[in-house]
């Protein structure tokens, strides 16, 4: 009987599907990175011989500039692939060393749990 009421409870969430879309504010953020809607608007304006083409082109230009600023401000953007490989090797070496130390400490039997 519990599954019967659970299903009616599931039916209201589909109307709340927009509420489920609220938690992922990432798709709106993805729209910030999407140029296709602006390109589509430009094509529509060109088909209509509209004067709005220049405005939409400026919006696209501004969006490109914003993305360039965002990309240039990303952490590690100035690190070369060779430097990244070196950092990765260093980190892997640290992990290997720490795993070896952990195994040594485990073998000392100092951390045995007393049995009661």
From TrEMBL:
CDD domains in alphabetical order: Med9-C
Subcellular location(s) per record: Nucleus
Entry keyword Cell division: no
Disordered: region residues: 1-31
InterPro entries assigned to the protein according to its UniProt record, in alphabetical order: Med7/Med21-like, Med9, MED9_metazoa
GO terms classed as biological process: regulation of transcription by RNA polymerase II
UniProt entry keywords in alphabetical sequence: Activator, Coiled coil, Nucleus, Transcription, Transcription regulation
Pfam families registered for this protein in UniProt: Med9
Protein name (record): Mediator of RNA polymerase II transcription subunit 9
Subunit record text: Component of the Mediator complex.
An annotated GO cellular component: mediator complex
Molecular function as annotated in GO: transcription coregulator activity
PANTHER family for the chain: MEDIATOR OF RNA POLYMERASE II TRANSCRIPTION SUBUNIT 9 (PTHR20844:SF0), MEDIATOR OF RNA POLYMERASE II TRANSCRIPTION, SUBUNIT 9 (PTHR20844)
Phylogenetic classification of the source organism: Eukaryota, Metazoa, Chordata, Craniata, Vertebrata
Family under the similarity heading: Belongs to the Mediator complex subunit 9 family.
Segments of skewed composition (Pro residues): 11-28
Purpose of the protein: Component of the Mediator complex, a coactivator involved in the regulated transcription of nearly all RNA polymerase II-dependent genes. Mediator functions as a bridge to convey information from gene-specific regulatory proteins to the basal RNA polymerase II transcription machinery. Mediator is recruited to promoters by direct interactions with regulatory proteins and serves as a scaffold for the assembly of a functional preinitiation complex with RNA polymerase II and the general transcription factors.
Source species of the chain: Scytalopus superciliaris
């Amino acid at each position: 009987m519990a599954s019967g009421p659970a299903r009616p409870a599931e039916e209201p969430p589909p109307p709340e599907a927009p509420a489920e879309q609220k938690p992922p504010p990432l798709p709106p953020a993805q729209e910030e990175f999407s140029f296709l809607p602006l390109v589509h608007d430009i094509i529509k304006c060109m088909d209509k011989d509209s004067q709005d083409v220049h405005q939409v082109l400026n919006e696209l230009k501004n969006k490109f500039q914003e993305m360039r600023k965002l990309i240039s401000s990303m952490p590690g953007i100035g690190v070369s692939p060779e430097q990244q490989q070196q950092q990765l090797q260093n980190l892997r070496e640290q992990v290997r060393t720490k795993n070896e130390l952990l195994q040594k400490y485990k073998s000392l039997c100092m951390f045995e749990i007393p049995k009661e």
